[in-house]
Amino acid sequence: ATGIMRKEKEEKNHTNITCSRDNVLKTVVFPVLYSCLFLLGLSLNGVAVCVFFRIPSKSHFIIYLKNIVVADVIMTFTFPFKVLSDSNMASTGLRIFVCRVSSVLFYLTMYISILFFGLISIDRCRKTLKPFRGTNAARLARRKVLSGAIWTFLLVLCLPNVILTRKTPTSSYFKCSDLKTAAGLYWHEVVNHVCQVIFWGNLVTVIVCYTLITKELYRSYSRTKAQRKINANVFLVLAVFFVCFVPFHFARVPYTMSQTRGVLFDCKLKLFFFQLKESTLFLSSLNSLLDPLIYFFLCKSFRTTLFKTLQQTLGKYHVMVLISQAAQCGGTDINIAGE
């Protein structure tokens, strides 16, 4: 009997080890990747913010890009909390904060980006099909109201996830789902379904818009090479959307089900869906690093302002260097005269 009990205990310990989330992928690989992503993303998005502050909101496209850069900055600031939590260097309080606030902000900004990617696709399609159609103050005002409505809707949708994640952890080893009340688990599933609708709706929008854009580009294939090159840059939006958002949404449904309906999944399957979700989530995080490519290649105002800012900065630096050199030369002359 003692031997049987020992064998059962060994099997249980082996199961706990093989099903544990605290493996090298979670505690080492992803923290290193997110740390690099934070440093690069903070630099690029910091530059983007400085540039966009100098650009007036004179088109629908610029309004949408400004919203995306704000979402990217917020997302980037959630990375350090994820690094500390995943590497097991965070205190229990900080891990609770990650579950209640930081993770919610991450997903909030992701779906804000997805919605604005859909709007950008519509805008690029309209620009391709009707390149000479302008805009006016009333249309710009409506786009700003629409932008505010998107932020408000998603904030209201995500707020209950913060409020209903309030259970006290029973041990130092806990998952975010362990902190949710019964209502919190239900709302989490509701939010997941709404977010799936947002994603699939925008995926269809992006595909339809870029199908129309492709047809128009094919019709105008006889244009000059320069024009074709400029038009080809439009597909950056499509590429970033598919690389960053599509894989995650194929993985998220089974992962959420494994968290909210745990009795249907054994621990190894739960671990597989968790690792799949984390891997595709990192691709979604790359959005904050790839969006500046869209700003640079698709927004002429961004490029122009960026180059002007760099010229001014380098000009000031050059003047400061000349003044410093002149001061040093002047100091030398005085010393020589003194001697």
From TrEMBL:
Cellular-component GO terms for this entry: plasma membrane
Q: Which organism is it from?
A: Cyclopterus lumpus
Mind listing the GO molecular function terms for this protein?
G protein-coupled purinergic nucleotide receptor activity
Every G-protein coupled receptors family 1 profile domain range: 44-295
Pfam families per record: 7tm_1
Subcellular localization: Cell membrane
What keywords tag this UniProt record?
Cell membrane, G-protein coupled receptor, Glycoprotein, Membrane, Receptor, Transducer, Transmembrane, Transmembrane helix
Q: Which domain of life is it from?
A: Eukaryota
What Gene3D superfamilies would the database entry show?
Answer: Rhodopsin 7-helix transmembrane proteins
Record's InterPro entries?
Answer: GPCR_Rhodpsn, GPCR_Rhodpsn_7TM
Q: What is this protein called?
A: Purinergic receptor P2Y12
Q: Which topology term describes how it sits in the membrane? A: Multi-pass membrane protein
Q: Which residues cross the membrane?
A: 32-53, 65-84, 104-124, 145-164, 197-218, 230-250, 279-298
